[in-house]
Specification:
CATH superfamily of chain B: P-loop containing nucleotide triphosphate hydrolases
Mean pLDDT of chain B: 86
Mean pLDDT of chain A: 84
Largest interface: A-B, 25 and 34 residues
Number of helices of chain A: 13
Distance between the termini of chain B: 19 Å
Low-confidence stretches of chain B: 1-5
Order of helices and strands of chain A: HEEEHEEEEEHHEEEHEEHHHHHHHH
Radius of gyration of chain B: 18 Å
Shape of chain B: globular
Strand order of the largest sheet of chain B: 6-7-8-3-9-10
Largest sheet of chain B: 6 strands, mixed
CATH topology of the largest domain in chain A: MetI-like fold
Number of strands of chain A: 13
Strand content of chain A: 5-15%
CATH class of the largest domain in chain A: Mainly Alpha
CATH class of chain B: Alpha Beta
Structural class of chain A: alpha+beta
CATH architecture of chain B: 3-Layer(aba) Sandwich
Strand content of chain B: 25-35%
Oligomer: heterodimer
Radius of gyration of chain A: 32 Å
Order of helices and strands of chain B: EEEHEEHEHHHHEHEHEEHH
Low-confidence stretches of chain A: 1-5
Amino acid sequence: MNAKTDDGDAPRPRRPGRSLLLLCGGALGFCLLLVAGQLVLIAWNGLDYFWPRDLVAFETKAGGKALGEVHARERFHPDGLAAGAELPTRIQVKVANRERTGADFAWIDERELAREWRPDDALLLERLEWGNFHGFLRAVKRGEETLAEGEAAWPLLLGLIDRKTAERAELAAFEKGELEDVTRALEQIRLARRRLELDAPAAAELAERTRALDAEAAWLETRYAALAERLAADRVRLDAESAVLATIDGGETALPVGAIVTALRPNALGLLGKLRLWCGRVVSFVVDDPRESNTEGGIFPALFGTVMMVFLMSFAVVPLGVLAALYLREYARQGVLVRLVRIAVNNLAGVPSIVFGVFGLGFFVYGIGGSIDRLFFAEALPQPTFGTGGILWAAMTLALLTVPVVIVATEEGLAAVPRAVREGSLALGATKFETTWRVVLPAAAPGMLTGVILAIARAAGEVAPLMIVGMVKLAPALPIDRHAPFVHLDQKFMHLGFHIFDVGFQSPNVEATKPLVFATALVLLLLVVAMNLVAVSLRNKLRRRYATSAV
Amino acid sequence: MADPSPAPAPGPATLEVDDLRLSYGESRALHGITLAIPRRQITAFIGPSGCGKSTLLRCFNRMNDLVDGVRTEGDVRFEGRTIFGPGVDVNELRKRIGMVFQKSNPFPKSIYDNVAYGPRVHGARRASDLDEVVERSLRGAALWDEVKDRLRQSALGLSGGQQQRLCIARAIAVQPEVILLDEPCSALDPVATAKVEDLMHELKKEYTLVVVTHNMQQASRVSDHTAFLYMGRLIEYGRTADLFVNPREKQTEDYITGRFG
């Protein structure tokens, strides 16, 4: 107790303020604990997923064998356990080899375990299909010819995988490049024919233009056939070499090297090697395309889609919100009507987001998009161009969703600009517009950016409305590519928020993809934090520049 | 009450106020003021708080227009022409009649941009012209030597007195004919006040100055003419020397001797 209390030695009177203070502090502490716990949980689970685990071999007393990563050890209630007996332990092992065992995971009862060891040559393959493979390398073959056997096969396999990865990338570039150019050109011709039908020109012109189109189409068809042949040949070449593999239970199988993404022997890796591998996996998770209906591979398209959608949304919402706030605060006669508008705007922020989704579908997609299609893309109908969900409509829907936030924040920023500053400008003979534009708006810019920050944070995490205005589980292409006009606002897109839901709850292999949920959530979290940091630093810069508080 | 001599000074009047009445909604702030402000001299308005001196000052550049529910009757003529007529361009009027406020109100911009603001608004674009105007104005406001090395820094980093002189520089940058000063020193310390007062003496050579002050020493130090207002009425108007030494009205005498107000 402090000696300086004014009541000296007398019993201290009850101070209700003290317990209230404790209560407030406790509430804050609890909130912080929850937030920190959430962050730690997501970060730990997300990053742990990429850490290479050892492959442990198990042999049961009955002679069964398994090779896999240990994911959990837990006590369980077996049938027929005597009352009061100690609970036995079982081990959850990711055994992979999905095409053989039917499931990625197996439970092993520790009581039945005969031995457990870590073979140095245990092999882990990441494959394009069927998930991972656990086993041992026996040989590398080209056709029937054996290229290498035993230990000599391992360095050969690694070299081959590098070469095949390069070949696969080339093939993909060829498919996305030359081949797609031709298919696109053919589609253009189909559309040109349809346009011709719709235009219905004079018979002579019709015949002439049809002939031109036919000639071009024929040329393209032959070119397509040649390219397709080349593609098939390349595919065959890609699969020429195969790895002969053994599983721990004695089975043998051959796998084309072209279908292997990476090969590693985790038990032989040191800490440094594992660390390097971990970094490589994190990077490829962020920059790679997903495989196996999103349960494997990376999340790049979802990341890209999210960022682009948020950018589009910001471009739409900032001018709209700022101008609306400007009118409400600076120009509108303050009265009952403006108060009503303000209340309505504030309430708009509380409308459930799915309602905005429905509105976006009805207004943007079917209304505006449908009209655009009828006016400019009639030849493609009934296939819709803008009349279906797309990244533009998703961004517009979210802009509508977040515009109240921007309006409110901008209004507050405008209200904080001192009257004296406005008068100073007007007294110099500036008009009201000049005053607003050159003095008030810059001074209110930090407030606006606060609104933008809140809008971005909300938009990046919103999923529900997007599901009906253009977000998809798997988009075939990014909304930006090398085909004119380069930015395809009508394209469907992937989104991290939906990716989390899809991977976690819509995939056939939930147990295996659970860590992906955390990893994707971590990326989404970091993305929102990064975008906010950019906006916050911009705001602080502006605040220093346009600080209105006099010294 | 005796007639409060409307034009005490010889020489031409820049502003002529003719039976000006003004009310905010129901309450009347000015009850028929008539006076004339002589050119290139300093005229001070004194009086207790709420006497209408600031309101009268803000009529001259029509800043009262910004307040809702203001009604004015009577007339103010600037260089012989009414400022209330329908054809009057308020922005042009405010360009010719500048104003410095009680609390310094630099824009949250650099020192340079503050001074260049007026000329830019009125169409100056060439960098060399603006440089020249900024230097001339800052010199005119006796601030150049103090800020010439940090023109690009924020004006909010200046001291209170410097900020007020910056506001004066900003006002003279648009080359007005009249400068209205609304208690320009009330927030300043004595040293800064002395600098602003010296500056006013300098400015008098080129501009007509009207200053509102509640500081009678200041009024007696700087002004050539003084008008004493009380409860929205002009009580006495005359040469400063006469008014302070030999007031004609009892109320004036009571006020300047500190018996009320």
